[in-house]
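REQUEST ID: PR-0412
SUBMITTED BY: lab tech R.K.
PRIORITY: routine
TASK: structure prediction, single protein chain
INPUT:
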Amino acid sequence: MWLDRLTQEKVEELPHQVEPARFQWQGKRTECLNGHSNISYGNLLVGDGAERCQLLSKSYAFLLPKKDKSTNIDLFSDAITTIGKKLDDRNELPSPMLPAAVINSESHLLPLEMRLERVLDKGHLHQISQNPRLDIRYDEEVIDVARAKRLAKGALVHLASHSECWQRQTLNGIVPKKVKARFSEDDLNIYENRVYSRLLDELDQHLNSRIRTVVELNDTLSKALELHNDKNKHHLLIQKICTLWGQTFNEEATAKTLELLEDTLTRLQKMHLKIRNLKQGGLYLMVARQTITGRALHRTNILNHDAHYRYLAILWDELSKHQQKSIRSPSEAFEYEQELTEYYSRFSGLVLQQALQRYLDENDKGIYHSTELSFDWSGRKLTVKKEQYDWKLILLGPEHKTETMLHIVPCMNFTDMPDMVSVPDNTLIVWPALDKIPANQPISDNHGVAISPMDLYCIERLGWFIDKKLNQVLVRNYEESIKKIPKAPEKWLKENAIESSIQLDDSHPPELKILEDLSDKHLNLLIKQLEGSNAKAQGQTVKARVMEIRTLQCCPVCESTTNRLHHQKNGSFRVQCTKCPTSRYLRRTNDGQVYEIKMDAENITNGFAACGRWFQS
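STATUS: complete
OUTPUT:
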């Protein structure tokens, strides 16, 4: 039995093509992947680097990422691992942005690349391409006498036994028509030249991968640097993102690192161009492409002592050292993927807790909670809870009713986001973002949100969905009637004349609606009146409605608390911030309630890219 984590449904049979980390084992017995790794209850079905997915019961195939994504996968995995190892319970809440350690390790030339740069500058590879070592190959063939220059060994014996090669026979002997001749030919397809050819292929792939990595880092740092002076975005959004980025790099360090990346990129591109030129002519085209060498290098005299060829062995060893770091056995690859899945789950929890910082009190701010975090919100209690690999945001209401506001399912695989048809409304599928993320789209239409350390808006995307869900809780009961109001509270309401905040109708028994905020004095007195008339439930509901209005009065942008909610007709309201040009509206349409935030700041465009999580409409 498997649990489909995306749809939250149990399935007996897996699809033919299996997405890694999507299915969780729920069976009593232990499963086994490809005969080398056990899958216990609660473990995820992740890959081992191969397409084959052989379980005890049946054979399937893993859905593998595209090969052109391998560079982004390595960079993403390094970033997630670096951040995930920092996340211990009650430690300081780190930034989810790209770690400085990852940037620094990729911004300099690797030892292999420094060696290659020197070898290319001295022209050793070009000398091999233009003046290669060669061998002489001797072939024997039966040909016409006129074409033969040298007889092969045993040519006379061959002629004596093959009369079809005779021209004629005379008294003096045989006049041959054809003879067995020996030919010599220059042979470039020697072992050392095959090493040269293979080395160029490997270096081409390595440099191509490194260039794409550096370009990705360069793009991320450029966006961070440009954001600081972007006048088309809200200044408070820029301040938030730059503060988080500043925990990794400040503006000066970002500029210096960007210069270093550009220099590294220029040098890598120069080397790559030289390798490509070597592959387009000379020796490379003369060596048979089907002849390849093994991974281990056989040290011949030429590779050890030739003035130019000996650098092939040096480069080969450096390349092997670099590649050896990423070579894993199937069981090691499986364990690594399990570990990476856990790190991505931690990273998703980090982004979630960063997005909730504005709702926390001072004692809980800036601290990472590895399993559970509870805090008060609008007269209720919100709990962030980790359940195996998933994260949930649970709301405990005034009547002790629980409601899952948000269920985050981190899906650590590098395939394209699947088309979901039955995802619950409160569920978000979190997945790595290896492709370009639409700037003005916080989440996808199929409840998927791309969360990545390379995305400056990762907290804003998750925060947008959290704000949307919590705002729905705040406004869904606005102007809702509180029924069965006893006579004593009814009389008190009429005597105290607070009709602007409360509407009391003439039904029997009467009903009231909370329209605007009440003072603490009036609120406490009203609750006391209701509780004294054995209407405790109504008193709790009144308190909940007032707390919702007070929460709505707090500006989400500048966090000002001096604002007032003004009731409007047809169950609508308006809140105008007194400190910033932010207005919020609730209006009712035929399709239901519409809650909207309008930010009238000058020079900024509308949309998620300019306003972040505050773009609610």
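NOTES: The chain has a mean pLDDT of 87.
REVIEWED BY: pending
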